[in-house]
């Protein structure tokens, strides 16, 4: 390394701790300072970054790139720091100017915050409060639990809040997000919760609940196609709510508040929307519905005791239905239900092709669709099915016989380390695909469906984010910044920290700390240092 680069690095990597600010004006203590955070691979000194230290534990966060801020939920803990208490604060931290814009003392037993771009909603047991992201002031109040937000129209839809001892309401409401005013009402049954929601066009959305229900987001009008998506036949007990419903259903992706614990939900497939048609399989039937008016184009009954949650896909004029053999108990717990099978239908008229029963123990935990085959994995088998004929080509045994063993396909890039260089697992073994198991294993499977290798999943790194020619990777123990050629230039000790990338800023959340390093300012220097070695 040249003398000039040594001098440059020394200035960059000063170990002195520079306190930017200390404050206790928000009824909690926090301190912003500069601290050494990361170790360059080919240098002596550490890289200095910014750290915000709170006197309460960081529980959740939401980066707001547009406002250069991060929303944080911080909570009190017990003396040992092993249990979160309900008391704490919600705050918005300006990471560009190193200050807290605003904070609010919160009882998190009775209030939840959810944020989407340009919208912050505080949900209590009785109402939704829209808060200004810059000041925290209440902009408006509504008595509706927001389930879905359509940003184009600036309208949300949802139901009245669930109260203790009451049944959930089926009155869907449209809410103007500018002022919180109710725009319209419509009865929309949701006996088994919402399974999905998707846009049909700029003004129409379709909700998968008790079938398919189309809603004009501006006035509530629309058609409905009803079919059964769950069952209470496992237990004839009360369908009353089992607990309090603090809302924010669709903002959190959870739509089953008020579902009894003795009800099976999710006995439905994903919807397929194509060419102004919607395809959906339910507990009763698989149907093709006109997306403009809700009229049934064709429908085929399913065998009742075989139906379950399913996956459907459209290809070459055929609808493939993969019955997964499972449902959700009380909207939450996956349990075995029905039978796993694959069946094919003509997309135009619904005429049935082959039906292939899958010799699978338990239910399908994951599946993969290729050019010629459909492959499914479950508790103890990997099964390959010929897509054209439905023939079972091969059954490969997996698992250890343990009750809760599961397997899923690895679709994300995985990296492993050799020296100070990272390599992409999928590029090193292009002849194989990979499965992850509940035993912290990565299984290498060849194209003949034989296992040819086994790794420890904790030996691999996953991508946190990418900035220009730098990739941020992490595993259980460390966080690494890597060049395009795989050379490691910077490393952090991870412990239990959660890293994330916002533009050129690498953030690390660890217990009471929020740390930040500006990768942009390091890019040329780090790569030059690495190039000298």
TrEMBL record:
The UniProt entry, under SUPFAM superfamilies, shows:
Quinoprotein alcohol dehydrogenase-like (SSF50998)
Q: Would the keyword Transport turn up in this protein's UniProt record?
A: no
Q: Which residues form the Pyrrolo-quinoline quinone repeat domain?
A: 174-394
Signal peptide range equals 1-23
Keyword Transport listed? The answer is no
Cite the InterPro entries for this sequence. PQQ_rpt_dom (IPR002372), Quinoprotein_ADH-like_sf (IPR011047), WD40/YVTN_repeat-like_dom_sf (IPR015943)
Gene3D superfamilies for the chain: YVTN repeat-like/Quinoprotein amine dehydrogenase (2.130.10.10)
Pfam families recorded: PQQ_2
Q: Which UniProt keywords apply?
A: Signal
Any idea what this protein is called?
Pyrrolo-quinoline quinone repeat domain-containing protein
Report the source organism: Mariniradius saccharolyticus AK6
